[in-house]
Specification:
The complex is a heterodimer. By secondary structure, chain A is an all-alpha fold. Chain A has two domains: 159 residues, no CATH class; 133 residues, no CATH class. Chain A has 17 helices and two strands. A two-stranded antiparallel ribbon of chain A has the order 1-2. In chain A, α4 crosses α5. Chain B has three domains: 260 residues, Rossmann fold; 67 residues, Ubiquitin-like (UB roll) (Roll); 137 residues, no CATH class. Helix content of chain B is 37%, strand content 17%. Chain B has 16 helices and 17 strands. In chain B, the strands form four sheets. A six-stranded mixed beta sheet of chain B has the order 1-14-13-17-15-16, sandwiched between helices. In chain B, α7 links the parallel β10 and β11. Classes of the chains: A mainly alpha, B alpha/beta. At the A-B interface, α1 and α3 of A face β16, α14 and α15 of B.
Chain lengths: 350, 502
């Protein structure tokens, strides 16, 4: 006889008794794989510094996740296994200049994991995208360090691993001044304040072909990774497409209204965190909208906000602030975009 | 076959696993020594036993009588002696027990009762309709597809309103289950006769027999009968196409309004096994005492078997070669909506369409945290937001859950199936539904108590008053009040029941 008393509830499984193949671990693995082309592009253009920061970030993320869960009396194993915290670490690292001191990525990840994620209740409960929370924290606290990106493809790329490590672990924040400069977005913004017209900047080396030297290639690498995620069904089209539409449309309007003051569509799509955001940040499921229409609103809003902050705000890239602002609206968006239910004539928005 | 089919929202393409049993003829098994007949095998009120311990009963004899409109009789599936009336393990999601009639089966005296009445639908259609309704009710027939709604109630409701379409549901969308497919193939004549009869009975304008598009043998068998009483339509094999609401949409493009029944839009849906049972009851006066059960999964002799109602699950499985209970578990029903059977002594009931033996998988623990990936949204056939409902259900936010239309959930399991965090979403939704229902019942009970108190108070004040006229008027006033409150209580209970029915 195989009678099982209804004592241990976990033994009894409620229907359905079969499940699909996807699990969170698989999803996170796909995301990490999709980030690889982008990371490779970073290494080629900026040298191996990012790898060191990735190591620091991953170790910090896993360690603090473990601690935070244990402190709450939760078994950390399933959470560490699923890889979501590694994705978080990767996303923050990609936003940090590759030769920033080591404690930058440590602090960023620590803030993201502890405040961005666990203070809100852990995986699945964070209102804001934790990677963006960590990045904004760094940007507000250490604006100088966070603004100093090495010039792509110059001496940075040829730097060796040991050289990079010594730079990251030993150098004072000021020590990197000579070897780094602003990004294309920074450049456009500072030059504009100097009353230079966009047409006068065309020849500027830093602007590269379309989206800033180096950045356009990095963005294309993220596009490749994102395309793969779309094909694998990890990411659905609504969020990335609506984000790119929002950003692109706003940029086009700006460009048409005054081409001398504003750069156009392709620059905005291919510079800064444009495509990284479209496929890896806007698509963070936890903090974005989840209804089909809501996703469109969320992505479009994030795109427009990104453009507005880039063009009119005081920070070079607007992605982080745009996403966090839209995160705050996500619950409301979800509520207002409930799809029509079976057997109802109009959508219910009680 | 020219009808345009419509897609329903959501759903899943599942591995069907039907080839395991689809091509094996239905077989008889030897009967057990003891049958356990739960007095409630249907939606509605339990029947009341009308036999005594020690009493000898004949096959087909009434052993428990329906005492309400939405209730059903239970008949003895074999000759025997009533051994006891007691609580016994039944197939129940939480492994609860229920009152059963224990019947010690005597030597089987096979007598062919199929000669009792005229079997031709044309003959039956010369009778008064209420005679047929009566026969259906007397035969104890409930929906055999799994819901267990008393058939005569559905038919009666159908007779009160105009019926545009009668849909006979042979779409077994759950994986593994093939009992309806085999039934339609092996007893196609009865399906046709039943469809003809019921179409006449409910005066339906049209009749559709719906099957799944991969049921080739079934289609062949039914097409051979060349009946013009119904259209035979094969629908795409998307789970849950066999669910009443979804099937209606696929076939007609209509949607059953939220909170309403199919009959409100002029549609009656009956499971195909129910149709055959109705025909037999009408034609031969046969009560429902046996059914076809699919036995599938990791078992050595899978197939469809004819089992007496009340046969212990263990007996059926033993007859099919048994299984390893250390590594496997048994479900009643399919893998998407079935119930795990916690006690092997539990009997087969009128609604048990499948016994499925599945391996007990030991998976590494999942974090079970909702990452709001939204995978559950596009698969929900109702258009709910399972990830939002989950938060509301988990935090016991009753109002939020109802605002998110919790009670429209049909518990098909698509959301749980796709959930990458392996969250038992449907389990949460069921739990939330029953919590809300019990709240409603508590509220109704509180209203009832208040009502009694107020009656008591008016009685007291009435007896204190010496003026006869005043007493009368007071009684009148309070009487009004009382009936009004009583209505409120009844409404609340009716609402709770209505929800449970869904």
């Amino acid at each position: 006889m195989w009678i099982r008393a209804f004592v241990n509830e976990s033994l009894i499984k409620s229907s359905p008794h079969i499940s699909g193949a996807r699990d969170v671990r698989w999803i996170m693995q796909q995301v990490l794989l999709a980030l690889l082309p982008g990371i490779v592009a970073y290494v080629i253009l900026f040298g191996p510094g990012i790898l060191i920061h990735l190591g620091i970030a991953a170790a910090t993320a896993l360690g603090l996740e473990n601690l935070a869960l244990r402190w709450q009396g939760i078994d950390p194993q399933p959470f560490l296994r699923d890889g979501s915290v590694l994705v978080l670490a990767c996303l923050i690292t990609l936003a940090i200049p590759p030769y920033a001191p080591w404690w930058i990525s440590f602090l960023g990840v620590a803030f993201a994991v502890l405040i961005g994620k666990h203070a809100f209740g852990g995986l699945g409960h964070n209102l804001f995208n934790p990677a963006m929370v960590g990045y904004i924290f760094l940007l507000l606290c250490f604006p100088r360090i966070m603004g100093q990106w090495p010039s792509a493809g110059l001496d940075a790329a040829s730097r060796g691993l040991i050289d990079s490590a010594s730079l990251i672990f030993t150098s004072a924040p000021d020590g990197i001044d000579g070897r780094s400069g602003a990004t294309a977005l920074d450049h456009v913004k500072t030059q504009a304040t100097l009353m230079r017209m966009q047409s006068e900047m065309h020849a500027d080396n830093i602007l590269g072909l379309v989206g800033g030297r180096g950045w356009e290639w990095i963005n294309l690498a993220f596009l490749a990774g994102g395309g793969w995620l779309l094909l694998r069904g990890v990411v659905r089209w609504r969020l990335p497409l609506s984000f790119l539409c929002g950003l692109g449309l706003a940029a086009s309007i700006g460009f048409i209204s005054d081409p001398e003051l504003h750069r156009g569509l392709w620059f905005h799509l291919l510079t800064g965190a444009g495509l990284l955001a479209a496929f890896f940040i806007v698509t963070d499921p936890v903090s974005s909208a989840t209804t089909p229409k809501g996703m469109l609103v969320f992505g479009f809003g994030a795109g427009v906000c990104t453009y507005l902050i880039r063009e009119f705000g005081s920070y070079p890239d607007g992605v982080a602030f745009a996403i966090v602002s839209m995160n705050a609206c996500a619950p409301l968006i979800d509520r207002l975009t409930q799809p029509r239910l079976y057997g109802t004539q109009t959508k219910e928005t009680k | 076959m020219n009808r345009t089919l419509h897609a329903f929202k959501g759903g899943l393409k599942l591995a069907s696993h039907k080839d395991q049993t689809r091509h094996i003829a239905t077989r008889d098994i030897c009967h057990p020594e003891t049958l356990y007949l739960p007095i409630k095998q249907h939606v509605g009120m339990a029947a009341v036993p009308c036999v005594e311990v020690g009493q000898a009963v004949r096959k087909g004899e009434l052993v428990a009588r329906s005492q309400a409109y939405v209730s059903m009789h239970v008949h003895a599936p074999a000759d025997g002696i009533v051994a006891s009336l007691r609580d016994f393990p039944v197939i129940h999601p939480s492994g609860l027990q229920a009152l059963c009639i224990e019947l010690s089966v005597s030597e089987r005296h096979d007598d062919d009762r199929l000669t009792a009445r005229g079997a031709n639908p044309a003959d039956l259609m010369r009778l008064e309709r209420h005679v047929i309704y009566d026969r259906i009710e007397q035969a104890g027939i409930v929906g055999l597809g799994g819901a267990g709604f008393p058939a005569h109630v559905k038919m009666h409701e159908g007779s009160l309103q105009h019926v545009d379409v009668l849909i006979i549901n042979g779409v077994e969308c759950e994986p593994y289950i093939t009992c309806d497919a085999r039934l339609m193939q092996e007893q196609a004549q009865d399906v046709v006769a039943g469809a003809t009869l019921i179409r006449w009975l409910v005066e339906a304008d049209a009749c559709i027999v719906a099957i799944e598009e991969d049921m080739d043998d079934t289609r062949g068998a039914l097409a051979q009968c060349k009946s013009d009483a119904f259209e035979l339509i094969a629908v795409p094999a998307i789970y849950p196409a066999g669910s009443e609401k979804q099937l209606i949409t696929v076939l007609t493009g209509l949607e059953v309004p939220s909170g309403s029944l199919p009959i409100d839009i002029g549609i009656v849906v009956l499971n195909v096994a129910t149709v055959v049972a109705i025909y037999r009851a009408a034609a031969y006066g046969l009560p429902l005492t046996e059914r076809i059960v699919t036995v599938a999964g990791d078992i050595s002799m899978p197939g469809n078997i004819k089992a007496l109602i009340g046969t212990p699950v263990q007996h059926v499985l033993d007859q099919c070669g048994g299984f390893d209970s250390a590594t496997h578990r048994v479900l009643s029903g399919g893998p998407m909506m079935g119930i795990e059977i916690l006690d092997p002594r539990a009997p087969i009931t009128k609604v048990t369409n499948c016994l499925l033996v599945l391996e007990r998988k030991l998976q590494p623990p999942a974090s079970k945290a909702c990452i709001r990936c939204g995978d559950c949204v596009p698969v929900c056939p109702i258009g709910l937001q399972p990830q939002q409902l989950f938060e509301a259900s988990r935090s016991a936010d009753v109002d939020e859950a109802q605002d998110l239309n919790l009670f429209d959930c049909i518990e098909c399991g698509c959301c749980s199936y796709v959930c990458p965090s392996e969250i038992p979403l449907v389990h949460y939704f069921r739990y939330a539904k029953s919590s809300i229902e019990s709240l409603d019942i508590d509220r109704a009970a509180a209203d009832d108590a208040r009502l009694r108190f107020e009656r008591h108070k008016t009685r007291l004040s009435a007896s204190e008053s010496s003026d006869v006229d005043e007493q009368v008027s007071l009684a009148d006033v309070s009487g009004l009040r009382v009936s009004e409150l009583q209505n409120q209580v009844h409404d609340a209970i009716a609402r709770a029941r209505q929800r449970r029915k869904k």
